[in-house]
Amino acid sequence: MTSKMLQRARDFEKKYLKYTVSEQPAFHVTGGIGWINDPNGFAPYKGEYHLFFQYYPYDTKWGPMHWGHVKTRDFIKWERLPAALAPDSEYDRDGCFSGGAVEMPDGRHLLMYTGVRNVRLRNGKIQAFQTQCIAIGDGVDYEKHSLNPVIDARFLPEGGSTEDFRDPKIWREGDLYYAAIGNRCADGSGTVLIFRSPDAVNWEYVSVLSACHNQYGRMWECPDLFRLDGKDVLLVSPQEMAAIGLEFHPGNANVCLIGSIDRENFHLHRDRVQAIDFGLDFYAPQTLLTKDGRRVMIAWMQNWETSSCKPSELRFMGQMTLPRELSIRDGRLYQNPVRELEKYRGVKIDYYNVLITGETSLRGIRGRSMDMTVTVRPGNESSSFKWFRLYLCRDGEHFTVIRFRPDISTVKVDRTHSGFPHDIVNIREFPVHLHNGELKLRVILDRYSLELFINDGESAASFVLYTPENADAVSFSSEGAVLVDVEKYDLEMK
Ligand code: FRU
Prior knowledge:
By secondary structure, the chain is mainly beta. Helix content is 3%, strand content 52%.
């Protein structure tokens, strides 16, 4: 039965979504109207890929969390479905927080999420109670289970926080369901706990999969766990992270732990810890396995640090990254846009071995919806160049700049002049590696965003932009001689 609260959200969508269509990016998921944050329940269901998200339709600010819903066949074209969950029960009255989804053996669609209930204590403090709940449905309508919550504080290991216990990632293995859930342990820092169940209703605690002991931030939000290229991979989104070199930025960060799980104790032994995305706008990634065996990741293309800043006329806040195919190479996580994007490539313009010595633009190289790869190498064998800059989304007033400095092997992206109405963090610098003396920059632009993939997925960086759409010029500039190859495709929704 659809509750009054869920019906209200669905009626609101019906009434207003049609008016915001013209504001949307072409192929990045938004809520259409209102606020979104984390992707939820990103999983295959009945031959399609479903994506839910943290959602508050009524305002462009975070509010009592609902789950919005879309689905796709190719990760580029999405169909909007009515809101799936509303915080309409006593145990989730303050929000249906993040979680996952899985297809049940009998063909039903199982959602697992965190129900939040805030209680004011005698001393005036508000205490959150976070528990894990399930809802079962047919891909459109979902019924919350009568035995909710199915995991509560009683299941926690000693010292586990009941206030920070959230974001179940659920999957099936053999005849069992497993869930990896974020928590804070006695030392106040992030852990991921594993639970197991034969029916998704009766759960048992299994183990601490990984604990950071204050090394990588505090609460570990939104865990995602999978096997890839012979490794076990855990993605987490730590809060209050301290910066570490240029690899990890402070605040709400994103971390990938690569290693192997010892199946007896269900504990992750780490080989490597790395940032997932170096941009300003990337958080809470989730992954799924496609029919043809690809591990595909999507994330909130935003960060809590910058989430209160957008042009006031836009009626939506928050978008998802482009889904990305993951792989492990040389022990590191690689990511590239899903290959389906290539079906949407239109006109191609390319240039090879163009010598850049000052500021240059190239005929036909411009646009705001494009997939462009720029390969950069020294133009002079005897001396290197000092820096190379790629300017995007440019007019007399605006620009976004990607700067590469070979002497310190970094790329810096600066979006100070990219349409933001307030002063927020706008610059990020991160390490890159040259391969045979070359750096490859793949730039995906879609109206309000720039996603950058370096050296065929060795690193990625995501940025929201609010630059007016007619600022579409591209230019190249360097100090010292640089040779570039440019291959640019317009992206066209068919
Ligand atoms: C991460 C997060 C989750 C929580 C959700 C609430 O961005 O804080 O931990 O479930 O957002 O909207």
